[in-house]
Amino acid sequence: YNEQLRDLLTEVGPGGVQHEAPRLKTTGSTSCSKLEGAVSRDIPGETADAMVKSLQEILKSGQSQRATSATAVHGSSSRSHLVMSLTLSTRDAATGLLQRAGKLSLVDLAGSE
Question: Is the dihedral of CA 46, 47, 48, 54 positive or negative?
Answer without folding.
Answer: negative
